[in-house]
Design brief:
This protein has 78 residues and is mainly α. It has a two-stranded antiparallel ribbon. The mean pLDDT is 83. Keywords: Membrane, Transmembrane, Transmembrane helix.
């Protein structure tokens, strides 16, 4: 819709008092975040997903190899 960003001008954001925050001394806020096609600019989460995914893939391959080794070298009593 706005591929080049919002047009210049003054904007007004109205936040209704639908959820009371006075009872626990809270406040309401509105955060505008910018992201690109691969996600947020902070790379911590994507890198963490890649590291954990790679680790789990290697552990899976290790378990499959151990299972195959146990299955192939099993001694059959006769």
């Amino acid at each position: 819709m706005f591929s080049n960003g919002l047009p210049k001008g003054e904007y007004q954001l109205v936040i209704n008092y639908n959820y009371p925050v006075d009872m626990y001394s809270g406040d309401k806020s509105f955060i505008i975040a910018s992201e690109n096609w691969v996600g947020p600019r902070n790379l911590f989460l994507p890198v963490t997903y890649l590291v954990v995914g790679t680790f789990l893939l290697l552990v899976t391959i290790l378990f499959i190899l151990l299972w195959l080794k146990q299955r192939l070298f099993r001694v059959h009593p006769e």
